[in-house]
Amino acid sequence: MSIAESAVAPATTEADVRVIPHWIDGGERASTSGRTAPVYNPATGAVSAQVALADEAEIDAAIASALRGYEVWSQFSIARRQSVLFSFRELLNARKRELAEIITAEHGKVVSDAMGEILRGQEVVELATGFPHFLKGAFSENASSGIDVYSLKQPLGVVGIISPFNFPAMVPMWFFPIAIAAGNAVVLKPSEKDPSAALWLAALWREAGLPDGVFTVLQGDKLAVDGLLESPDVASISFVGSTPIAQYIYETASKHGKRVQALGGAKNHMLVLPDADLDLVADQAVNAGYGAAGERCMAISVVLAV
Fold it and tell me: Which residues pair with 263 in a beta bridge?
């Protein structure tokens, strides 16, 4: 059974509920922690699966695998990396409907909305395929008397991504195409509420020719998050989520010497001017406020009428 099929397959009894694994060393890795969390079918409220919650040994194994992957991937020529990126781009475009159905099965947004999410992520994949240009260094001869100046652009190493439940494909794709194109290895910690999209993406990377360990999926909760934040082998963290957790991520990761992107919550206001078409305003306010169950970072939560 494929990841896409298993994500939407109904569970008949508690014993039949599958446990969603990690992705380590280029393949699915069953958890031995004994810790799990329920994944719900948003249409029925029933438990459709359990997701593994990593323990310290599994966190260490995931990071160690990423370190090995980085050692291999960082030595690939830019042209070889670009070839893998192009393969991933083509596979994603051809099979994005599978990913959309996984998102719908675990998050609950309708398939057309899920497809829109994927398309926004694909924009970053497209950007990453052109990264050979962005990776160029610079050289200035005789910038000062007898002094030449040059710059190099080099990968950091292992980078961590902690992504939210509301966009299980788009938000990781904001980050990992760029990180991988630049020669880094990625450890993705998806939301435990909808973890299967990350596994599908990992399998697609393998099919595209990415070496083992360069894209790792670490399932888990706060223990996994803290493991990435505190590990001396993780060079940077990219996070999207609520503002209080963004503050915690920024403080903890920066305290451990990491580069940090921590994007907190945001809600938009709709300004209604006196000459507005009120029927159109009402329709758009409902769509913007309640589309995807209001779980968009930029959902309209306040209407201000002038």
Answer: 240
Judge contact between 21 and 41, C-beta under 8 A. no
Tell me the C-alpha to C-alpha distance, in Å, between residue 74 and each of 4, 7, 71, 183, 276.
Answer: 31, 33, 6, 5, 55
- Four-residue CA torsion sign, 238, 131, 128, 215: negative
Nearest by Cα to 214 from 56, 58, 81: 81
pLDDT (tens digit per residue) in 141-177: 999 999 999 999 999 999 999 999 999 999 999 999 9
How far apart, in whole angstroms, are the C-alpha atoms of residue 247 and residue 243?
A: 6
Structure tokens at 232: 């001396």
Residues 6+ apart with CB under 8 A from 223: 53, 54, 55, 56, 59
Catalytic annotation, residues: 297
pLDDT at residue 5 greater than cutoff 80? no
Please, are residues 177 and 85 in contact by the beta-carbon 8 Å criterion? yes
Tell me which DSSP letter residue 16 carries.
G
* Of the candidates 178, 177, 174, 187, the residue with the CA atom closest to the CA atom of residue 216: 187
Token code pair at residue 17: 């509920």
| Spatial contact of 188 and 198, defined as CB atoms under 8 Å apart | yes
Domains of the chain as residue ranges with CATH: 3-132+153-263 (3.40.605.10), 268-305 (no CATH)
Give the model confidence (pLDDT) of 47-90 as tens digits.
999 999 999 999 999 999 999 999 999 999 999 999 999 999 99
Q: Give CA–CA dist 222/171, Å, rounded.
A: 19
Cβ 63 vs Cβ 230: under 8 Å: no
Residue 9 φ/ψ, nearest 5 degrees? -75, 130
